[in-house]
Design goal:
It contains eight helices and ten strands. By secondary structure, it is an alpha/beta fold. The chain has a six-stranded mixed β-sheet with strand order 2-1-3-8-9-10, sandwiched between helices. The longest helix is centred in the N-terminal third of the chain and has 47 residues. 35% of the residues are buried.
Length: 290
């Protein structure tokens, strides 16, 4: 009798185990069916409402996640102020959906340049003094493009950056003072914080693309394109030209090459130096900006 009771107890346990497996299998089956129904319902709803299934384009101005931001760095306001240019450029940018920051000459320090990539600008307009070379000792020495700041030069400040040729001496009236710090391409690649996010850089100053060192630095730092002049340009001519460029580039959404070409057709080279607008690198000429 004891052996029989043991036999029936084992059988009951086996049956109970089988029932548990059946319950588990049923639960899994129900879960799978619910998932299939949910996915099918979503796909059916999406087919009826295609707008809800669109990919997010980070360059759409109506996308709340992404906001087009532009900055006008107006270093020339110190020596060649042009409020009409600032207002016209700002209005054009806002018409295209940009929010616009403005920095006058007094704000353009070494630290300003250092932090420029951290603000997330889609478009950077550098209305700044610039030169392809530096003042050393008793004369002007040609070299990479440098962008002026409004920070007075000091031999004892930013020693490391000076020692590594990231900062140089600049003057509006070489070789006469006053002298200011100016940034070089090495500063862009070595000391600017963060990275640009496929940014369009318009460098309005002289000789910005008389060589490609500065443009290469900005591209290496994350910019999409760098647009500037082949030689010396007057403030009046660069102001007039960039207003047209912005119209073609961000309002009419022309390609970079088309916008630069149309600007030159409309305004022409600088009357005194024959400097023309150029864009670097060539690989993005057929692209558009955000």
């Amino acid at each position: 009798m004891k052996a029989e009771k043991k036999h029936w107890g084992t059988k009951a346990r086996v049956q109970a185990y089988k029932k548990r497996l059946q319950h588990i299998g049923t639960a899994i089956t129900v879960t799978i069916l619910v998932a299939i129904i949910a996915v099918s319902s979503f796909l059916f709803y999406s087919s009826l409402n295609p707008s809800s299934n669109q990919n997010i384009n980070p360059n759409q101005t109506n996308n709340p996640i992404f906001q087009l931001k532009a900055v006008i760095v107006d270093h020339l306001s110190l020596t060649a102020p042009n409020q009409t240019f600032i207002e016209t450029a700002t209005n054009t940018l806002k018409q295209a959906g940009y929010t616009v920051d403005y920095y006058p000459s007094g704000k353009i320090t070494v630290e300003f340049y250092r932090n420029l990539p951290t603000h997330g600008y889609s478009l950077v307009i550098l209305r700044v003094h610039s030169a392809a070379g530096v003042y050393e000792g008793e004369g002007f020495v040609g070299g990479p493009v440098c962008l002026f700041s409004s920070e007075p030069y000091s031999k004892t400040k930013y020693f490391y950056e000076q020692w590594t040729d990231q900062l140089v001496t600049a003057s509006y009236n070489v070789p006469m003072p006053p002298y200011y710090f100016a940034i070089t391409p090495k500063f862009v690649t070595s000391s600017m914080k963060g990275r640009f996010q496929n940014t369009t850089v318009i460098m309005m100053g002289c000789e910005g693309l008389s060589n490609t060192k500065m443009s290469e630095a900005f591209i290496q730092k994350g910019a999409q394109v760098y647009i500037s002049w082949s030689g010396i340009v007057s403030a009046k001519h660069t102001d007039q030209s960039i207003i047209h460029l912005l119209q073609y580039l961000i309002i009419e959404n022309q390609t970079i090459k088309q916008a630069v070409t149309e600007t030159m057709k409309e305004v022409g080279p600088d009357p005194a130096s024959s400097a023309t607008l150029l864009a670097y690198p060539e690989e993005v000429w057929e692209d558009t900006t955000p």
